[in-house]
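Comment thread on ticket #2218

A.B. wrote:
> Attaching the input chain for the structure job we discussed in standup.
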Amino acid sequence: MCADPDLDIIDVGTRPDLRAPMVLAALANRKHVFAGANFAPDLATARIMRDAAREAGTICALDSVFPWQPAHREVKRLLDAGDTGRPVAVCARLHISHFAAPGAGGAGWKWFGIRKHGASAMRNLGTHSLHLLTWLLGPVEAVAAQATIAKRQWYFPDGSTVRPEVEDTAHIMLRFASGVMGTLCLSWSSPAKSGWRMELTCERSTLVTIDGAGFPCGARVRLYRGTDGGLLSEPASIPCSDGVSFESPTQVPQIPDIAHAAAHMIKSIRYGGRALPDFEDAFHVEAILDAARQAAETRSWMEVVRS
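C.D. wrote:
> Ran it. Output below, let me know if you need it in another format.
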C-alpha cells in the first residue's frame, strides 16, 4: 500500500506500539501521514518517527483536534492580538468516565489497560490537552507529576475483567519556557463525567473554555471571559468556522474537529505550510509526557528534552 503511486496520504490509526513500522514505511515512500494523537509508546520511538518525517519532507499530521475547536481558536486569536495581556497561568482539567462503570469503555478498549501498548490516562488525555496548551502558550521546559490507579479493576459487558497496569488519574505541573505556570489534571475513571475545563489567567483577562459533557468536542465547547474583577461573562462570541461543510448533521460530535484538521493538512500539501499539530509537535508532547513519567517516579522536577 505504501508504495502505491496512486496514494498520497496514509492514515495510521492503530495502537501506539504497532504504529511505528507503518509510519516509517509510509515515509520511506514519501507519503504524507495522518497518525493517531497518542504518537508512540516511548520517546525513543517518537524520535525515530519525527526524524523520518524530517527526512521525507512530507506533511505529517495528528488527529489531536483541540486546536481546531472554534472556542480554542478564538482563545488563540485573542492571545495573538494582545487583547488579554500577557498569559500568566493556566489550569486545565479533563475528567471522563470511560472505565469508571461496568461496560463504560466497551470490550474493544481492554488493551488500554496494558502498559506495553502505550496507553494511559496521562498519555492519552495528556496528549490531547498538551497539544492545545503548547499551541496556545509555547513549549514546556520542565514538569512535576503524580499519578495513580484509582479504579483497580475494569468490568466489561462480556463478563471479563482487566486489572489495569497503567495510571488512570494524573496531575502534572508545567513550567512553560515563556514563564507561564500550568497545571493539568487528568482522569479516565472519574465517577462523574465532569468533562473539560481550561482556565487561562492573563494580565487583563481570564479566559475559560468548558465542555461539561465529557471529552471536548468543538460544537459543545463554550468560551467565557472575565475582566476588571467581575464575574465570567455569558459564553463569548465565537466566529463561525469556514472551509468545511457537511450535507447533513454529523452523528459523531468529533467529526467536524477531525475534518478541519484533515482539511488543513490537505491545504498544507497543496499550497505549502505545516500541519497542526505535526510530528515536531508530537515529539515535544511525547517528551513532556516522558518527563512527567520520570517526575512521578522520582517525585522531583524533570527537564523536558528538546531534541
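A.B. wrote:
> Thanks. Noting for the ticket: DSSP finds six helices and 13 strands in the chain.
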